[in-house]
Hints:
2 domains; 2 strands; Fumarate Reductase Cytochrome B subunit
Amino acid sequence: MKLKYILLTLLALTSLAFASESAIYGKELIPNILGYDKEGSLHLGQWFTLLQSKYFKPIFLGVLLGVPTAFFIHYLIIGPMIFSHDRKKIYVFSVFHRVIHTIAAISFILLIPTGVVMVFGDFFGGGEFVRVNKEIHAISTLLFVISVVPMLFMWLKDMLPTSDDIKWLMILGGYLNKRKDPIPAGRFNAGQKMWFYVCTFGGIIMILTGAIMFFQDFKFDFIASLGLSQIDLLRLSAIIHNILGFAVLALFMTHIYMSVFAIKGAIHSIISGYKEEEEVEILHSSFYKKLKEDKKV
Ligand code: HEM
């Protein structure tokens, strides 16, 4: 009899321990212990369960395998762009730019693989390994928090849309051939701008939605005043975090491919601050024209 009571108590405690987690994942096993209402006014429970169980993982896997495969094929068929390293060098990234970029880069080198481990937690056997990755993911977010706002302000002016962007998009940046025709772009091209907006504004949303999921049990009167319950907020955050995660992952891999493989030697610019003159003349022709007018080259 005594054993029966002990077992029942253990069962009840285990259920309580899982309740907060199961609530976000749409599987309310017991009446909600955090005092959230079960379904929430947005009725996201079913949607969340469906997305989480059927779509998020295959999409992440598709991005993870598809993007590098596409670039591998591009590298084999078209190959890297190679610019002369014998001409002048143009100073484009200040020390401040490079320091902020390095902090962001370190944070992403940690954020991306740990995020992937969390998405495929069951593949990695759950448990301690996934838990440690979750902690690293949270800690490396702090590095990103430090870098994202300075990055947003230091490059925003040069990232504003221009008519060059449409022309750049129409020829896909000239990356489908190896001709050295001048490409319409200012200091940054449309592809770089896309990455900038996803990693800054998108990154800030990732930070906020990530924090909501990390801290879970907190109350903001402002959220309640919008008619959102805590469970609505958690599910909505998880959905947004995953969807933005697809874009960040895809564009991060693109960014690495462009910087390290597609434009030979491009990575040196973010280390030394200098770009090859021929690279600027071809890939950022409007910027180069302006530099010439200002007698800076
Ligand atoms: C981790 C490895 C990374 C490498 C090797 C890398 C490399 C580079 C290089 C070479 C450039 C200069 C590109 C050019 O103008 O030709 C650059 C610029 C830039 N990087 Fe990174 N980066 C990395 C990570 C990141 C991260 C994590 C972020 C943001 C969170 C980021 C955001 C940017 C932005 C917004 C620019 C300016 C626009 C652009 O060139 O795309 N980078 N990076």
